[in-house]
Design brief:
285 residues; alpha+beta; Glucose Permease (Domain IIA); 2 domains; 8-stranded antiparallel sheet; 4-stranded antiparallel sheet; binds zinc ion
């Protein structure tokens, strides 16, 4: 009797363990996933690496289907970004394929963004009806540009457009003339009027025109929803529609648009979100 009870116990244990293992592999451990970098702040991009055999997975973060790159057989890289206005806390990327689903989680750290006070001429802050109409028109034109998703055009890692310092960080809250707040959605780089501004990577020029805030602005589409932005230029060296290669001169630095002196405003967009260019270049994609 004792032997039979022991046998029954062993069988039950085996079935239980097998069920637990099956559950682990079929649900929460459905994919081999890793999110990098280790520290993610508001306005940062991130990479989710998924290794999975079988049908191709997709990933969704905050309602956005993330663009995907291949990293070999059964290996996928998803590029995501966190809104600069997001609150610190636990965030999840939902990953699924036709047969399984799982979540990859990460902790969003505090951005600790600084506040600075700026003085600009009143006509650049309080907009006349004509300027307001112009700004609204330009915003909807830019919103449409950032929605386009072309195939990957870039090669190798992205580079800084100038060999100089960052003079104003991403995410800084700028309080203009003590009453208007705007979040800095790019970085300012030290430049003199006429300094050569280079394309951060290969892509197609989708904007090369004078804008109210950005002044002479160049925007390069690198594919799958990734764009780089160059503002306040004194001169263009390319035209809309041109293909540019990495390090090709797109224009000369200047102080056009809403600017308090010569510098380059350099921005990066991923899926219409403004991301920190320093973090983006640090990703090494
Ligand atoms: Zn700026």
């Amino acid at each position: 009797m004792a032997v039979r009870r022991l046998f029954r116990y062993a069988i039950t244990r085996f079935i239980f363990s097998a069920a637990v293992l099956l559950f682990m592999f079929s649900s929460s451990y459905a994919f081999d996933m890793k999110i990098s970098p280790d520290v993610i702040k508001p306005g940062d991009p991130f990479i989710l690496k998924v290794e999975s055999s079988g049908s191709e997975p997709s990933a969704v973060f905050e309602g956005r289907a993330l663009p995907q790159l291949r990293c070999g057989n059964d290996c996928y890289l998803f590029i995501g970004a966190v809104d600069v206005a997001a609150s610190p806390g636990r965030y999840a990327v939902n990953v699924s394929s036709s047969s399984k689903s799982a979540t990859a989680e990460f902790d969003l750290q505090d951005g600790n963004f600084r506040e600075i006070y700026l003085t600009l001429s009143q006509d650049k802050v309080f907009l006349s009806p004509e300027n307001l109409e112009r700004v609204i028109k330009e915003k909807s034109m830019l919103d449409a540009v950032f929605l386009s998703k072309t195939p990957v055009l870039w090669t190798g890692s992205f580079v800084y457009p100038l060999d100089s310092d960052v003079t104003s960080d991403f995410g800084i809250k700028r309080i203009i003339n003590k009453n208007t707040t705007s979040i800095h959605r790019g970085i300012d780089m030290r430049a003199k009027t006429g300094d050569l501004v280079r394309a951060s990577n290969t892509g197609r020029v989708v904007i090369a025109q004078e804008l109210f805030y950005g002044g002479n602005t160049v925007i390069v589409d690198h594919g799958i929803g990734i764009f780089t932005i160059y503002m306040h230029l004194s001169e263009f060296k390319i035209s809309k529609g041109d293909m540019v290669s990495k390090n090709q001169i797109v224009g000369l630095a200047g102080s056009t648009g809403r600017s308090s002196g010569p510098h380059l405003h350099f921005g990066v967009k991923i899926q219409s979100l403004s991301v920190n260019p320093v973090s983006f270049l640090g990703l090494g994609i």
